[in-house]
Amino acid sequence: MAKQQDKVIISCAVTGSVHTPSMSPYLPCTPDQIAEQAIEAAQAGAAILHLHARNPADGSPSFEPAVFDQFVPRIRAATDAVINITTGGSTRMTLDQRLAYPLQLKPEMCSLNMGSMNFSIHTAARKIKAWQHPWEQPYVEGMEDLIFRNTFKDIKHILQTLGDGCGTRFEFECYDVGHLYTLAHFVDEGLVQGPLFIQSIYGILGGMGPDPENLVTMRTTADRLFGRDGYRFSVLGAGRHQMPLLTMAAVMGGNVRVGLEDSLYLGRGELARSCADQVRKIRRILTELSLEIATPAEARDMLGLKGRDAVAV
């Protein structure tokens, strides 16, 4: 008899650090907007909320703990969703800046990019006719000459200080097949223990393309490296590739991630008015596929998290 498929974890990445306010009027930038969209996404069915901070004055990416503190406690008070804080921040931040708030909060989960890479949306600048803030155009165009840094030493530092030191587990962001092998290295070194939560990412310039075959390649490679029962597989499709790839992931027994960090759209030519719009859409698709949605409590159990009572704030 075939094994019954697990419930599907929906993650929601609320704002990120890549898109800018000129790209969508619905991108949450202020603490109030981030809190409101995160809470609504959780109410719509997201079990995990992946959070970045932005400068309330102009929407630029921020690492300041004081800014995170304006919305994270509100989200925790209003929902039982797992709080997942970025350790990626942005390409302009140092490692110490990226870890400033995670080390303060000691959350149940953080994201962890599994390698240094070219990461760019500089071509998106060509589509913007008017910029709201002076920082936006050089920020987007400047990505062409920047690298997101996460060396082996950086990753080791994060695993030891935040993982071992704080009991935080990770959403391992893998943009290419090599990132899976990097993760396997750290498993072999004893710095990572299962169950692993692998977020495979498609459609970012500098990473793997959104071809469906790449999803199969990542899934089968992870099977070889970790064993099917040794990890939880999740899929992030950037931009217009979001819903097709997530549907494919669900059929393959995976989990899904939506949110305005990953795509500003709900459908062809239609901007998503909120992250919850995307959560509700993927939830409808999953339901039509006869799949069940994991609650935050079920997600905690599936991923071996320490529980919200062990978080510092």
Automatic annotation (TrEMBL):
Keywords: Metal-binding, Transferase, Zinc. It holds the Pfam family BKACE. One of its GO terms (molecular function) is metal ion binding. It comes from the Bacteria. Its cofactor is Zn(2+). PANTHER family: 3-KETO-5-AMINOHEXANOATE CLEAVAGE ENZYME (PTHR37418:SF2), 3-KETO-5-AMINOHEXANOATE CLEAVAGE ENZYME-RELATED (PTHR37418). This is 3-keto-5-aminohexanoate cleavage protein. It comes from Rhodoferax koreensis.
